[in-house]
Design goal:
The chain has 484 residues and is mainly β. It is built from four helices and 31 strands. Bound molecules: CU-O-CU linkage and copper (II) ion.
C-alpha cells in the first residue's frame, strides 16, 4: 500500500528548471501574469499597544495565561491595507517589565530600511512607557505579518504577533476569506507558561510547544458557504514547528507563497517552517459537508481546522483557480549573477556568551538580543559574537539592482527556515526536488539540503538574514546583508 507520505513525495517532485509552466498531476498551468497596480492612495492609521492581557483561549483548557498582545480584544490583530495606501502606525510599549524593549518588524514587506524595525540596527528600541511610529506604503500585495525583533522567543511564546494583508491581488474575488494563524503554546499541566526557550531545544530543532492551535483553538471550526471558492491565508507563526498542510478529500490550489502569487499549484500538501505562509483557494464541500485542514508532518496527521458548509451551493462548474496578480519584481539575471555561498552549521560547542542582564527567558536585552549560548552559525560567524556597539562585518555586501544567487547550504540534521529582510528570494533550484521555482521571503532548507535562491539587491541598508526558528536565530544563526 502506498502511504500518503510517499504519495506526497511523489506528487510534489518536479524537474528543477525555471520553466514558465509545469505539469502537476497531469494538469498543465500556463503562465499568464497580470501585474497588480495600486487600488487606493490614501492613508490608513493604526494604533498598537503592546501589553500583557491575560486570556483563557479555547486551547488553554480552562486556564488563563498572561498573553502579550498588540491590541485589546484580539489575539492576533489583522491589519488590512490596500495596495497603494500608506500605513501610519503609532505603537506604545506597555510591556510589563523594565528593559523589555520593543520595535516592530514587518515580515516580508520590502519597505525602506529605517522602517524595518530591528532594534539598534535600523532604529533605537522603544522602552516600556514610550511610543514609536512607522510610516510606509507597502509595495507588494499578499499575506504578511508583524512581530517584535528582540526577546522574540518570549514575545512569540506569549502571542505577540499580528497579520498584515495587502489587498489588490485578486482578478476574481473569492466567495469568502479566512485567516488562519497556527501557533503552539508552551504550557505546564497546571496552566502556567513553561520557559519559552531551553538550551536543549535551542541546540536541536528548537523548543517545542505543548499545545497546538489555530487562531487560539485546538481545532478551529469555520462555517463556510457551500460549494464555494474560498481563500485561506495560512500562517505558520510558531517559533519552532515545521508543518506540512493539506486538505483531506477536497480540491484546493496554492495561489500564493509568502504573499507572492504564482501559477496555481494543485499539490497534495505544502511544507511550512516558522514564518512561512501559503494562500489557498479551496472548493468547499456541498451543503452539510465538511473539509478538514490537516498537518501531515506530525507523527499522526492532526486536524487543525474544519470548514463546515452551510447554505445553498455557490458554484457548480469544475474547480479552476484563477492566478493572482503579481508584482513586477526585478528578474534575477541568472547568467550574470554572482554566487554567494552561505553555510548554515552548528558551532563546535554551545559556547557561552559573556553575561549581561538576563530577562526571564534568558535573552540578554540591550546587547542586540542575544541568547546565553551560541549553537549555530552562518559562514562560521555566530551572531552573539557581535554586539551593537561593535557590529562586525556583514555576511555579504550587495549592490542595489544587481543580481546574486545565494547558495544556501544546510550542513546540519535540522530544518532551517531562512529569512531575508526587505527582499524576496527567487527560489531557482534545490538539491532535493520537492518545490517548484517560486518567490518567498522565507525558504525552508531541509536537513543537508542545498538551495539556489536568486536575490536582486534592494533598498540600501543593513538587512537581517537569519533562521526563523527563533531559538536558532537567538543562538547564533543570524547575520546581516548590507546593500549599497
Ligand atoms: Cu520575521 Cu527577522 O523576522
Ligand atoms: Cu534554524
Amino acid at each position: 500500500m502506498v502511504t500518503r507520505r510517499e504519495l506526497l513525495a511523489g506528487a510534489a517532485a518536479f524537474s528543477g528548471s525555471a520553466a514558465a509552466s509545469f505539469a502537476f498531476g497531469g494538469r498543465k498551468v500556463a503562465a499568464r501574469e497580470v501585474i497588480a497596480t495600486p487600488i487606493a492612495n490614501d492613508t490608513k492609521k493604526l494604533f498598537l499597544d503592546l501589553a500583557e492581557r491575560p486570556a483563557a483561549l479555547p486551547c488553554f483548557n480552562g486556564h488563563t495565561l498572561p498573553l502579550w498582545t498588540f491590541q485589546e480584544g484580539s489575539l492576533y490583530p489583522i491589519v488590512r491595507v490596500k495596495l497603494g495606501e500608506r500605513l501610519d502606525t503609532v505603537f506604545k510599549n506597555d510591556l510589563p517589565r523594565a528593559g523589555e524593549y520593543a520595535s516592530i518588524h514587518w515580515h516580508g514587506l520590502r519597505i525602506p530600511n529605517d522602517q524595518d524595525g530591528v532594534p539598534f540596527m535600523t532604529q533605537q528600541p522603544v522602552e516600556p512607557g514610550s511610543q514609536g511610529s512607522y510610516s510606509f506604503v507597502p509595495p507588494d500585495t499578499g499575506s504578511f505579518f508583524f512581530h517584535t525583533h528582540c526577546d522574540t522567543s518570549e514575545h512569540f511564546g506569549r502571542g505577540l504577533v499580528g497579520a498584515i494583508i495587502i489587498e489588490g491581488d485578486e482578478v476574481e474575488p473569492a466567495d469568502a476569506e479566512y485567516v488562519l494563524m497556527m501557533k503552539d503554546w508552551r504550557i505546564s499541566p497546571d496552566g502556567k507558561f513553561l520557559p519559552f526557550t531551553t538550551d536543549a531545544g535551542a541546540a536541536k530543532a528548537g523548543t517545542p510547544g505543548t499545545v497546538r492551535s489555530v487562531n487560539g483553538e485546538s481545532k478551529a471550526v469555520f462555517r463556510v458557504p457551500s460549494s464555494a471558492n474560498v481563500r485561506i491565508r495560512f500562517y505558520n507563526v510558531d517559533p519552532t514547528r515545521i508543518s506540512e498542510i493539506g486538505f483531506e478529500d477536497a480540491e484546493a490550489a496554492i495561489i500564493a507563497i509568502d504573499g507572492n502569487g504564482l501559477d496555481p499549484l494543485m499539490l497534495p500538501s505544502w511544507r511550512l517552517g516558522p514564518a512561512m505562509r501559503v494562500d489557498y483557494l479551496l472548493r468547499t464541500a456541498p451543503p452539510g459537508g465538511t473539509v478538514q485542514l490537516v498537518d501531515y508532518f506530525a507523527k499522526e496527521p492532526v486536524v487543525l481546522a474544519e470548514f463546515n458548509s452551510e447554505g445553498p451551493p455557490k458554484r457548480t462548474g469544475k474547480f479552476e483557480a484563477t492566478p493572482l496578480k503579481v508584482m513586477p519584481f526585478p528578474k534575477v539575471d541568472v547568467a550574470n549573477a554572482e554566487q554567494i555561498p552561505f553555510i548554515f552549521s552548528a558551532t563546535a560547542t554551545g559556547a557561552a556568551v559573556a553575561a549581561f542582564g538576563n530577562n526571564a527567558s534568558g535573552i540578554q536585552i540591550g546587547s542586540l538580543c542575544l541568547a546565553k549560548r551560541t549553537f549555530w552559525a552562518i559562514n562560521k560567524q555566530a551572531w552573539p559574537g557581535m554586539d551593537h556597539k561593535n557590529l562586525g562585518p556583514p555576511l555579504a555586501v550587495l549592490k542595489s539592482g544587481k543580481s546574486y544567487i545565494f547558495d544556501l547550504q544546510n550542513t546540519t540534521p535540522h530544518s532551517h527556515p531562512i529569512h531575508i529582510h526587505g527582499h524576496t528570494f527567487e527560489i531557482l533550484s534545490s538539491s532535493m526536488p520537492h518545490v517548484p521555482p517560486h518567490r518567498a521571503d522565507t525558504v525552508l532548507l531541509r536537513p543537508n539540503e542545498r538551495i539556489q535562491a536568486g536575490v536582486v539587491g534592494g533598498e540600501p541598508g543593513k538587512w537581517m538574514f537569519h533562521c526563523h526558528i527563533i531559538d536558532h536565530q537567538e543562538a547564533g544563526m543570524m547575520g546581516y546583508i548590507e546593500v549599497v
